[in-house]
Design goal:
- The chain is an alpha/beta fold and 665 residues long.
- The chain folds into four domains: 169 residues, Response regulator (Rossmann fold, 3-Layer(aba) Sandwich), CATH 3.40.50.2300; 226 residues, Aspartate Aminotransferase, domain 2 (3-Layer(aba) Sandwich), CATH 3.40.640; 102 residues, Aspartate Aminotransferase, domain 1 (Alpha-Beta Complex), CATH 3.90.1150.10; 71 residues, Orn/Lys/Arg decarboxylase, C-terminal domain (Ornithine Decarboxylase, Chain A, domain 4).
- Helices cover 41% and strands 16% of the residues.
- Helix 6 links the parallel strand 6 and strand 7.
- Helix 3 runs parallel beside helix 5 and helix 9 runs antiparallel to helix 13.
- It is globular.
């Protein structure tokens, strides 16, 4: 299997199109690139070209002849068709209004490039034109990779093909992984840590050699020490690591990107401690991951919490109301930061552009925990809800959750023009090991490579597969995949707040089944071999990630069809415990850090009403705290915990039936 460099040539004059493609095609053999498959395809109209770009993720370069007669109808159609996929509609209002206006043919040609970039921003576009008009073309066209005189391409096609191949190689490079792999292959004698010395202590032991054999030689010889200077320092971002981080920043279109090897929980804490000082106000979604709450405690900041919006029928949370976000920002203009979850566990998405615009109006920075949505930039059906596209200042991505990286591998992205890089590095050093695992760093490097080169292609296929799954499951009698219409019924602010849903978070309503959720989970795991991400009393959540092959979807469909048909032998549900309709708002009279670091005592959680919590009480999954330090425990909290107990979920912060509260004396 080789990488495929497919070049799309757009020219509406048939004879000229044939000349260009044959000239470039005849020079492919001159470059002796047996490691890359190189091919060309032709498009004689803009509409055909845009359809190719939408459908064919192997296209890695576009050669656009500037004099193509781009029709207004084709461009408007391109904007309209750029597509509605599942519950998310691609909307580019600026582009749509621009395409709908009257304009000259030359302006239309510039907008062809806009249309291409609206589908795949990473796709390089090379313009062919009249050399006399070259400077004007560059001024009119945004985002072109380079300009070539059309006659030169026919007479000297090697020039443009060499340029295209070089750009392809640059996009495809893996600065850390390549150097790391080369170093490991050299098989240097290890006189430094780690102590197993390339696996020797495992390999030569009669007791633990099975551990070595299970994982294989490469795992051990590639487990290196930070003593290898040429590979660079994670804490300082030098050499190969630094180059790899710069490549990530370029792919994600941000100012800086950083690798974190102990998860996005740590990434969140690093950002919060970089930005907040003792007593600083931070407006935070109370449904943020517990790492955000811990980060606020560590920074000794003062949170102003947004309320939960909870649907008890399905047991899921929506993003906070934009009206409350607006109110809290305007009431707390001295806040330093707004912290939101960009994509909830169940795939619900905040219209972040509105939040960023309002926060920046008052000089407030915006930090988005986008752990579950790391692929958002790489498909037009998702991009409008991307934190980076919305202009957020800080973003974290759990690369291991939904894209191709090892567990604990995480990205921090920075777009803040006021970024204090030196202080960030000090905070980074507080949280990060001085002996990071190089395999995690390498996985982040190749993760970027895949998103850059084939992210669109993979996501396009996954979205198509989900659409087909939904179509087939629409015929079911009892099971259904929840969609935009269902979320609109659940949450009154869904439409007015322009909330979206990530179709790759497949949330299935199982409430019409007679079986208990434990029995459904057991059936899927034990009898069918499907490990699902999360379940509530009436839903199961299935994540479709970059590793979601079509055969897995077919197996999922088969299992769900058996459940829907009743072709299973499972125990029936005895009762269905309702969840409370609302969760008390978080009200704090002082810094949560004060309660957290105070003298504490254990008390039976059933007897804790009226006491001040000294720790987080967090149902898991999804890891969203019900009670935070400094909060007074209410009877409604206990009612919610009683309801969760029937679902047999883990509740972190309860120890042998006790929770910790602030000592009353």
């Amino acid at each position: 299997m080789r990488p495929h460099l497919k070049i799309l040539v757009i020219e509406d004059a048939a004879d000229l199109l044939e000349q260009i493609t044959s000239s470039i095609g005849n020079t492919i053999s001159y470059f002796d690139r047996s490691d890359v498959e190189i091919s060309l395809i032709e498009a004689s109209s803009v509409s055909t070209a845009l359809q190719y770009i939408r459908d064919d993720g192997d296209i890695q370069a576009v050669v656009f002849s500037w004099d193509v007669a781009a029709k207004e109808s084709e461009l408007v159609s391109a904007s309209a068709d750029s597509s509605t996929l599942n519950d998310i509609t691609l909307t580019d209002n600026a582009l749509s209004s621009e395409l709908a206006s009257e304009s000259a043919p030359v302006e239309n040609n510039a907008r062809v490039i806009d249309a291409i970039k609206s589908i795949r921003p990473e796709l390089p576009v090379y313009v062919l034109g009249d050399a006399v008009k070259g400077l004007d073309i560059v001024n009119q066209a945004k985002g072109i990779e380079s300009f070539f005189y059309r006659n030169d391409i026919i007479s000297d096609p090697e020039s443009i093909l060499g340029y295209i191949i070089n750009d392809f190689d640059d996009r495809n490079e893996t600065p850390f992984w390549t150097e790391y792999k080369d170093y490991v292959v050299e098989a240097n004698d290890s006189w430094h840590t780690p102590g197993h010395s390339g696996g020797a202590s495992f390999r030569n032991s009669p007791y633990i050699s099975d551990f070595y054999r299970f994982f294989g030689r490469n795992v051990f010889v590639s487990d290196l020490s930070v003593s290898v200077d040429s590979l660079g320092s994670l804490s300082d971002g030098t050499y190969a690591i630094g180059r790899a981080q710069s490549a990530v920043a370029n792919t994600f279109e941000v100012r800086h990107s950083y690798f974190v090897t102990n998860g996005s929980s740590t990434s969140n804490k690093i950002i919060l401690q970089t930005l907040l000082r003792e007593g600083d106000k931070v407006i935070a979604d109370r449904n943020c991951h517990k790492s955000v709450h811990y980060g606020i405690i560590q920074a000794r900041a003062m949170p102003v919490y947004l309320d939960s919006v909870f649907n008890p029928q399905y047991g899921i949370f929506s993003p906070p109301r934009l009206s409350q976000i607006k109110t809290l920002i305007e009431e707390n203009k001295d806040a330093k930061l707004v912290v939101l979850t960009g994509c909830t566990y169940d795939g619900l998405l905040t219209d972040l552009k509105q939040v960023v615009t309002l926060a920046h109006k008052y000089g407030i920075k915006v930090f988005i925990d986008e752990a579950w949505f790391a692929y958002s930039l790489f498909h037009p059906a998702l991009r409008d809800y991307s934190a980076i596209a919305a202009g957020a200042d800080y973003i974290t991505h759990s690369a291991h959750k939904v894209v191709s990286a090892f567990s604990q591998a995480s990205f921090i992205h920075v777009n803040d023009p006021d970024f204090d890089k030196d202080f960030f590095k000090e905070v980074f050093a507080i949280h990060t090991s001085t002996s990071p695992k190089y395999q995690l760093i390498a996985s982040l490097d190749v993760c970027r490579q895949q998103l850059e080169m084939e992210g669109y292609k993979i996501l396009n296929e996954l979205l198509s597969n989900v659409a087909e799954l939904k179509s087939q499951m629409a015929k079911f009698k009892r099971l259904k995949i929840l969609s935009k219409d269902d979320f609109t019924q659940m949450f009154e602010h869904f439409e007015s707040d322009n909330i979206g849903h990530d179709p790759l978070k497949i949330l299935i309503d199982v409430s019409a089944l007679e079986y208990s959720n434990q029995e459904i989970h057991r059936f899927l795991m034990d009898e069918v071999g499907l490990e699902i991400e999360k379940f509530t009393h009436s839903t199961i959540l299935v994540l479709l990630t970059l590793g979601g092959m079509r055969s897995k979807i077919v197996r999922l469909y088969n299992a769900l069809k058996r459940l829907d048909d009743g072709a299973v032998n499972l125990s029936k549900r005895k009762n269905k415990s309702p969840l409370p309709a609302d969760i008390p708002a978080i009200k704090l009279d002082d810094l949560p850090s004060k309660a957290f670091f105070s003298k504490r005592e254990p008390i039976a959680w059933q007897n804790s009403v009226g006491r001040i919590a000294a720790g987080l009480i967090t149902p898991y999954p999804p890891g969203i705290p019900l009670i935070v330090p400094g909060q007074k425990v209410e009877q409604k909290h206990l009612d919610y915990l009683h309801a969760l107990a029937s679902q047999k979920l883990t509740v972190q912060g309860i120890y042998d039936g006790d929770i910790y509260v602030v000592c009353e004396d």
